[in-house]
Specification:
single chain, 17% helix
Length: 259
């Protein structure tokens, strides 16, 4: 009986609008993730960088690393109308990624990558093959580096840590105070996809044109809101992780996009 219903629905779809139906047929393609830095507002030095925070502290960084734990895209949750409903009826056993029903997210790249904070550069995180038609949001997680993490440094043991940073802050009176922060706390963020040099939210479609997502973090805002005179190491570490993720952007560099 159910197979008969499927056949009838399929015939309805064929008769109603073949060109529209094509938009809902299974598609597949690749998504690549790269880790990038927004250096605007940070002054690079011979062994790191320095900034002036929103509270007026001058911060000089001499050593540091973070661990990018994983990244993924979240599929669009908007309604596809009658045609989307018909397609779902034709494939009742499948749950689209990002719509719930499974813990296996096809777009996720689980690639623990350690990045230098004193020599910020673009880093390839990985590529995955997906079948979800459209994605609207990005998801990015900082977490503990494992023994096989990529780019483990020789000068500091990042195993089990999500962030390490060493530097000094200079108060308004000119006093320089060293600080060191190490944490194993994980932190994540979710935000809309955008195009380069634009704040407009977009969708990206899986297909023949490979998708490249730039996960861009900001150095200039890393210490925003932090009062070094009162913050303990836990407060400092949580603030750093929050600032790092809250100011992360998911920029579509390649791929078919639409509003």
């Amino acid at each position: 009986m159910y197979q008969t219903v499927q056949v009838i629905l399929f015939i309805i779809m064929i008769l109603m609008a073949p060109s529209i139906i094509a938009d809902y047929l299974p598609v597949e393609g690749d998504i690549s993730y790269q880790l990038d830095w927004d250096l605007n507002g940070a002054e690079l030095t011979s062994d790191g960088w320095q900034i002036t925070t929103d509270l007026g502290y001058e911060v000089v960084i001499h050593e540091g690393y973070i661990t990018s734990f994983n990244a993924s895209l979240i599929s669009c949750s908007h309604s596809h109308g009658l045609f989307g409903w018909l397609v779902e009826m034709l494939s009742p056993g499948e749950v689209q990624a990002g719509h719930g029903g499974t813990d296996d997210e096809p777009s996720i790249v689980n690639a623990s990558v350690v990045e230098s904070l004193t020599a910020p550069s673009s880093t390839v995180m990985g590529t995955v093959h997906v079948t979800e038609p459209n994605y609207c949001n990005g998801f990015y997680v900082l977490g503990q580096a494992h023994d096989l993490a990529a780019n483990l440094p020789d000068d500091f043991d990042m195993t089990g840590n999500s962030l390490y940073i060493r530097g000094e802050y200079i108060a308004n009176d000119g006093t320089a105070t060293p600080f060191t922060v190490t944490t194993n706390v994980g932190w994540g963020t979710q935000d809309d996809l955008t195009l380069p040099q634009s704040d407009r939210n977009i969708h990206v479609a899986v297909g023949n044109e490979a998708i490249t997502i730039s996960i861009q973090r900001s150095l200039a805002t890393l210490f925003d809101g932090i009062d070094f005179e009162t913050a303990d190491e836990i407060t400092l570490s949580h603030s750093l992780l929050r600032n790092l993720t809250d100011n992360t952007c998911f920029i579509v560099l390649t791929g078919k996009t639409h509003s």
